[in-house]
Amino acid sequence: MTNGHLDIIGRAARLYDHVVVAVLINKSKAGMFSVEERMDMLREATSSYGNVAVESFHGLLVDFCRDRDIPVIVKGLRAVSDFDYELQMAQMNHSLAGVETLFMSTNPASSFLSSSLVKEVATWGGDVSHLVPSFVLKRMSEKLSGS
Question: Which of 87, 95, 99, 105 is the most exposed place for a label (fewest CB within 10 A)?
Answer without folding.
Answer: 95
